[in-house]
C-alpha cells in the first residue's frame, strides 16, 4: 500500500478555492454524501488589499466575487468553503470535500479528488511558468576594443 | 468554533431577511408599534427578536458592542459566523446589544457629527417584555400620541435634545420588537 | 409657466428593442459568446475589472457584450452589480513578492535577480496590422521553444537560463524579490514600512480630503485609465515633474487569503492576476527629507500595465506635500482635482445627464434672456 494522503486543511481549502468548478464537479461522488446546510451557498464580494510599495501600509485595491457555503455531513464533520467566483455548486462541493477530509473518508477523498486537482493545477502553473521563462532575456556583453 | 454557533440563522435567507427588514423598517418608522419577527434562534441571552435584528442589520463593516451578560463566547461566535461584525468597545460601536442596565451609561455611545449625523450608534435594548403602556411618545411617525414600556424617560429626553444628533434604539423582548428613533419625543405622562 | 409632461413609453420600449438589434449586429455573422470575449478580448476585460473595481472576468466579459464594447458603460454595469453583493470580508494584503510572474521587467537594473522576463507584451512588436488575423487563418504557431523548452543557446556564449525565480508560490518555491528592496538595503530609497492600520474604504464612507495615501491609491486603482494616462504624461512633460524610472513592472498570479471567523485562521480563497509597478524617482532632498530615491506605486487588476504605470506616476506626483516639495500648481499635484475627477462612472453620469430633458430649466433661462434683452433694448431706445 502506498502512504496515506496528507495535506493541511489550509492547503486543501485553497486548492478547492482555486479549482476549476467543472473539474471539481466531475470528481465529486454521485450522489453527494448526505448533509444539511448551515449556510446556503451565497455569492458576495471580498475587498482585496494590497500594500503601498509592496511592503508598506495596506490599502483597498478593489473587490472580487466570492461564494461561501457551510454544511454538516449527516453524523459527521462541519465543512466550510470560500471560493472565488459566483458558482454556487463550486462552493457546495468545496464545503463537502472540506467536511469529508475531516472524517474517516479523508484518505479516499484526498486520492480521488484532491490529488487529481493538485496535479492539474501544478501542470497549469508549470506550463505558464515555462512560457514566461522562455521570454527571459539573456544579455550578451559586447566586447569593446579598448577593454581588450 | 462550536457547532452550535453555526445554527440558528435564517432558513431561507432571501425571503426571511426581506420580511424581517421590512418589519424593522416599519417599527422604526412608526415608533411605539410592536411587531413580531421570526427566523433567528440565537444563543442566550440574545432574544430571538434581537437575533433577527443582528442578522438583517450587521455585517463586517458594522462594529458591534456587547454589553454585560451579552458579551459571552457563545454570542460572539454566533455573530462572527452569521454576520462577520467585529466586536468593539462602546465608543466605536455602530450597534450595541444589552439590557438597559448593562448599556449604562448610554452617553458612551456615538451620537453622530453635524456633518454626518448618521455616524451614530443604534442601541438594541433587551427587555423582559414589551407592552403599549408607559411613557408617552409623540413625534414623526406617530398619529397623535402612543405609549411604550420604556425602561426610563430621562435618558431618551436627553437624547432627543441632541437632535439631529443622538442614538437610535430598538427595544426587544422575546420575538417582539419596537423602534425608538432619536426624533421621538418621550414624556412621563 | 410649468407644464408637466409625461410620455415616451412606447418610444423608449422601441429604442430598447432597436438597441438590442444593433448590439447583435448582422445576424449572418455568428454571435460572440461571453467566453470568447473573456479569452480573446482579455485586455478589455481587464480594464473593465480594474475600473469596475470587481475582479470577475466572466462578469466583465458579459458587461462588455451587453454594452456593445463601450467599456465605460461596461464599467458602469459592473459597479451597479457590485453594489448588490454582500461583503463576505476583507482579504489579507496580497504578497506580490510571491507572485507567479508571467512578465517582469526593470528599467533600472539590467541584472536584477530573477531576470528580465518579457512575457506576453506588445513591446518590441512593429505595430503593423496583421492581416492574417483578418483572414481568419490558423493562429501563428508558437516558436518551438515556447512553453516547453529552455531557450536555444546562441553560439554557446549564453549561460543556460536560470530557473524562473518565484514561479509557483507555495510549496517553498523561491520568491521574486522586489528591485526597490536592493536600493533599500543601501538606504538609497525611502523605506516602505508595514503598518497595521485598517485602510479607509471609499466604497463605504464618502471620500474626505485631504486623503491618506491609502485612500488615494484606492481611488486611482479604480480611476479612468485615460485620465490617469494624461495626468502621468503631463508630469513627464513638466507639470509636476517627478523624474520617474520604472524600478520594476511585474504581472502575474497572486494568491488571495482571508481570515475566516468560523475557522479562526486564514485560508486561500482564490488567485488573481495583478499588475504591479514601482517607480524610482529622483529626489534632491527637501527641508524635511535627505536626498534619496522616492517611490511611486501602482497595483491594478489583470494585465493592465499602462494603468499601473500611470497610477504610480500620479501617486508620486500627489506626494509633494509629504516629501516637502513645492506645489507648482500642476494638475497632477492637485489632490482634489485628481481624486474628484478620476472616476469615469461619476464623470460620465454627470456629463451624460445633461442630454436628458431639462425643458423646465431651459424655459426659465429663456425667459431670463428675453427679459434682459427687452431691458437693454428699451434702454437703447430711450438713449436714442
Radius of gyration of chain A: 21 Å
Helix percent of chain C reads 25-40%
Count of individual beta strands of chain A: 3
Helix-strand topology string of chain A: HHEEEHH
Strand fraction of chain C equals: 5-15%
Tally of structural domains of chain C: 3
Notes on the protein architecture:
The complex is a heterotrimer of chains A (148), B (189) and C (384). By secondary structure, chain A is of the alpha+beta class. Chain A has one domain. Chain A has helices spanning 9-18, 21-27, 88-100, 106-133; strands spanning 35-51, 58-73, 78-84. A 3-stranded antiparallel sheet of chain A has the order 1-2-3. In chain A, strand 1 and strand 2 form a beta hairpin. In chain A, helix 1 (9-18) packs antiparallel against helix 3 (88-100) and helix 2 crosses helix 3. Chain A is extended. Chain A starts with 8 loop residues before the first helix and ends in a 15-residue tail after the last helix. With 384 residues, chain C is α+β, with helices and mostly antiparallel strands. Chain C folds into 3 domains: 3-82; 96-139 and 149-161 and 173-342, no CATH class; 354-383. In chain C, 37% of the residues lie in helices and 15% in strands. In chain C, a hairpin with a 4-residue loop joins strand 4 (244-260) and strand 5. The relative contact order of chain C is 0.12. The model of chain C is unreliable at 148-173 (pLDDT under 50). The chains are: A alpha+beta (148), B alpha/beta (189), C alpha+beta (384). Strand 1 of chain A pairs parallel with strand 2 (87-93) of chain C, so a sheet runs across the interface.
Task: Summarize the topology.
The complex is a heterotrimer of chains A (148), B (189) and C (384).
Chain A: H1 9-18, H2 21-27, E1 35-51, E2 58-73, E3 78-84, H3 88-100, H4 106-133
Antiparallel strand pairs in A: 1-2, 2-3
Helix pairs in contact in A: 1-3, 1-4, 2-3
Chain B: H1 13-29, E1 34-36, H2 48-57, E2 64-66, H3 73-82, E3 95-99, H4 100-103, E4 122-126, E5 136-138, E6 146-147, H5 154-161, E7 168-173, E8 176-180, E9 185-187
Parallel strand pairs in B: 2-3, 3-4, 4-7
Antiparallel strand pairs in B: 1-8, 5-6, 5-9, 7-8
Chain C: H1 9-24, H2 34-40, H3 42-52, E1 54-55, H4 57-66, H5 71-82, E2 87-93, E3 100-105, H6 131-135, H7 179-185, H8 213-221, H9 225-236, E4 244-260, E5 265-281, E6 294-301, H10 305-317, H11 335-341, H12 344-352, H13 359-383
Antiparallel strand pairs in C: 3-4, 4-5, 5-6
